[in-house]
Amino acid sequence: MKYGLLNKIRPMLWLGLCAASLGAGCSNDDSGETSELAAKVTLTLSKYYNDQGATSLVTWKSSDRGAVFAVRHGAAEPAYAAPILPGSQKSLFLFTVDAPAHADATLVGFYPSDAALACEDNTLKATIPATQSGSITPCLVGKATARANSYEGYDIELKQLFCTMYVSVKKGNYSISKAVVKANGGETIAGDISIGIDDGSVNASAQTITVTPPSPIDCTGEARLIPVMIAPVTLSQGYTVTLTDTDGHSFSVGSTDAVTLTAGDKIETDDARSTEVTELIFCGDNMVYMIDAGLADETGYKNAVTWSWDATTAAATLGLAASRCNHLDDCKPVDNGKKLLVTSSYNWCALLDIATGEVLFHTTAAPNAHSAEMLPDNRIAVACSEGSNSDNNKVQVYDIARPNLVLFQSELGSHTAWSGTKRPNGFTPSAARASRSTN
């Protein structure tokens, strides 16, 4: 009977000893005094964006160390511990931290354990280099608030500290030696970084980031991405990236729209292309091709193609069978080369966003459409060639926001019809100019 009672008491004694172990050296009041306490912490590593624009996921190795700061007034020294469950992205750790015994404490975890981080007065301090090489390294950070010596412990997900910008450079006959990123509104985007642990506010010290790769980035074979580590801040007027090729020519890409850079997220620029490149645009059948003349040779052009579009991919948008998405007869860059106007003899016209391939405007009400042009006030003029339809031999005007709706049209005569004194009724050159300016 005595032995049975003792067997029941032993587990209770063991639990009491464990609790005493977790609370060893604890303060007996809530005065804010701290002591060394044992803290159970689960650290989960998240995916981060890598050099290639994809994601990488690291796992805890037995040789790794987890690291945490116990946030407090003054400077905090990191605590380190080995993963108890190596081999996956999630592991339990047992840390000894300097924290209050009878109040919640905030822990900031980070990976890798040798990351150049500091924690002082509720602020996390880090560095995002203002001079970079185009290589992305992980600096994963997270926080949680709990009772340090509790059984439940902490559960912290570690995410990339900074945002990753990918500067897209089009295929072409050039190599990139340098890229400089700058906020149009003058915001600081790199250098010494301070992050408010409570409110997440971010302050940086450098206004520009210069990326100089170890060797020039060759764009002759394919489009390339230049990765940039950038502070998670809001750029009120967007950003500009200025690229320099190995011949000393500079060109830029960017946005004037406000953009919020989020920690752990990514932002992709529009395609940058050198202004020194001679780019030719061809269309026929169902295809449009952009070709870098400097990459073409006598044997062919396929290796010189920098962009292409297959009209059959827009069949659903146009509301046509794929077999009617060909007979392209005109393709014309507009809006400083950002968009492309395409016409087809199968009675349609489309405006494309070159960066995305998205159809921004279309009409299928343009009989034998042979050419198109952008007009002021988001208008598009389409020239419809000869045919038996009553709408043939017309110039039509559309509003980009209203597909298939003809706002205005006027007779369009061929060269033969205009010979001598014969002209469309009521048509004079001045009338044509007036109709263009008012519509």
Question: Can you give a write-up of this model?
Answer:
There is one protein chain. This protein has helices at 2-22, 315-318, 429-438; strands at 35-45, 48-49, 55-56, 66-70, 75-76, 79-81, 90-99, 104-111, 118-120, 123-128, 131-132, 140-147, 154-160, 163-169, 175-183, 191-196, 202-203, 208-211, 217-218, 224-230, 234-235, 239-245, 250-255, 259-260, 266-272, 279-284, 287-292, 305-310, 328-334, 339-344, 348-353, 359-363, 369-375, 379-384, 394-399, 406-411. It has 439 residues and is mainly beta. A hairpin with a 3-residue loop joins strand 33 and strand 34. The strands form nine sheets. Strands 6-4-8-12-13-1-7 form a seven-stranded mixed sheet, with no helix packed on it. Strands 11, 15, 18, 19, 22 and 23 form a six-stranded mixed sheet that branches.
Strand and helix map with partners:
Layout: H1 2-22, E1 35-45, E2 48-49, E3 55-56, E4 66-70, E5 75-76, E6 79-81, E7 90-99, E8 104-111, E9 118-120, E10 123-128, E11 131-132, E12 140-147, E13 154-160, E14 163-169, E15 175-183, E16 191-196, E17 202-203, E18 208-211, E19 217-218, E20 224-230, E21 234-235, E22 239-245, E23 250-255, E24 259-260, E25 266-272, E26 279-284, E27 287-292, E28 305-310, H2 315-318, E29 328-334, E30 339-344, E31 348-353, E32 359-363, E33 369-375, E34 379-384, E35 394-399, E36 406-411, H3 429-438
Parallel strand pairs: 1-13, 11-18, 14-25
Antiparallel strand pairs: 1-7, 2-3, 4-6, 4-8, 5-9, 8-12, 9-10, 10-16, 12-13, 14-20, 15-18, 15-19, 15-22, 16-17, 21-24, 22-23, 26-27, 27-28, 29-30, 30-31, 31-32, 33-34, 34-35, 35-36
